[in-house]
Amino acid sequence: MTEIVTKTTTVRTRAMGVLFTGAAALNTAVTGATTVSTLIASDAHGDGWSGIPNAAVVAGTAFGALYLGVLIGKKGARTSLKLVYGVAAFGGLVAFLGGVFANLLLLLPGLAMLGIGNGAAGLVRYTAAELYPDNRKGFALSIIVWAGTIGAIAGPALLEPAAATAGFFGLPSTSGAIGFAALLCTIALLASATMPKTAFPAQGPKRPPLTLARVAAALKRRVVLVPLVSMTAAHVTMVTVMTMTPLQLHRQGHGLEVVGYVLSAHMIGMFALAPLSGKIADRIGGRATITAGVGVLVLAAVTVIAAPTSHTAGLPLALFLLGYGWNLVFVGSSALLSRSLADDERTQLQGVIDALVWSASGLGGIIAGGLFGLGGYALVAGVAAVLALTPLALVARRS
């Protein structure tokens, strides 16, 4: 009996290492690539194009989550990850060529393929949860969310050495981070090839893809609707405030250094405490964790309204709370989905939900710009607070 437990634990640890490596590599790759791609598009075609690279990544991420959910059901996790990370590595190479030649016809499709890998890297939190019993699923998936900490720190930190490396080879400095992104995706691909064969079934069960009618019906069920609405509301709330923070600081006369440390506080809130959120979700349940996250998001918005010009304390605190409130809702919702779905629909519905949440993230930026123009940063925060509260009516009701 001891040998069986030891072997199972060893396989699980190795599998978690593979999943964590892939998530960390893709987070780092996308963070760096999107940063420089915004500059490439702006320099080549004007400021009006600066948001298009990020839109390509978001579109690819939504598709990647949806596609991996279907693919795992057909081919199993090990093969599916190799395929999707292979697409991301190829996309990184295409995007790199687009960066070298400042060609959006290469850059944008390449970024979309990078996004496909990013969507998969996010969805594997549920794959990690499958390795653990119900009372530890929240912690397991939070470890994969925690991998985002590496991307948040390493992505910006690699920009300068990547630019120097590109310059050494006589290439445009902005192409360096995209080249590094392609390399990181290759690392994720190689890591996925080391996944223990016994960690997951070699092939998914023979089940047909869910029909649109069945997906629509499933999304109306409370066990699905609560986490879907909660994650969407939290994501739009976060993006709405976060995207306007650099502009608010710029209007106050602050430079990139101030913007950098305020956003660093936000990134720490988003990812660094994910294991704590997982422990909370396992201890008090997903619904209570979502409720706590909503409270933290509202507190963040109130802090922004109370101190919209405080770059030394108020805004760093508000952006940290914004990130951690999102994290609580995200982990709590994911924990609910990891436990409450039937085997024949779980992976596909999880992919659909991630795709919907990522698609909604683009809406946050559009809303934010219009609100900022109408009433400034305080109006953005006020509307964000209202958005954050929307899941409570569903969370409070029991099925």
Automatic annotation (TrEMBL):
> Which keywords fit this entry according to its UniProt record?
Membrane, Transmembrane, Transmembrane helix
UniProt main location, coarse: membrane
Entry annotated with the keyword Transmembrane helix: yes
Where does this one sit in the cell?
Cell membrane
One Gene Ontology term of the molecular function aspect? transmembrane transporter activity
Membrane-topology descriptor: Multi-pass membrane protein
One cellular component term (GO) for this entry is:
plasma membrane
Q: Which Gene3D superfamilies match?
A: MFS general substrate transporter like domains
Task: Give the stretches traversing the membrane.
Answer: 17-40, 52-71, 83-101, 107-126, 138-159, 171-191, 223-246, 258-276, 288-307, 313-337, 349-371, 377-396
Q: Where is the Major facilitator superfamily (MFS) profile domain?
A: 10-399
Q: Name one Pfam family in it.
A: MFS_1
Entry-linked PANTHER family: MAJOR FACILITATOR SUPERFAMILY PROTEIN (PTHR23534:SF1), MFS PERMEASE (PTHR23534)
This chain's protein is named MFS transporter
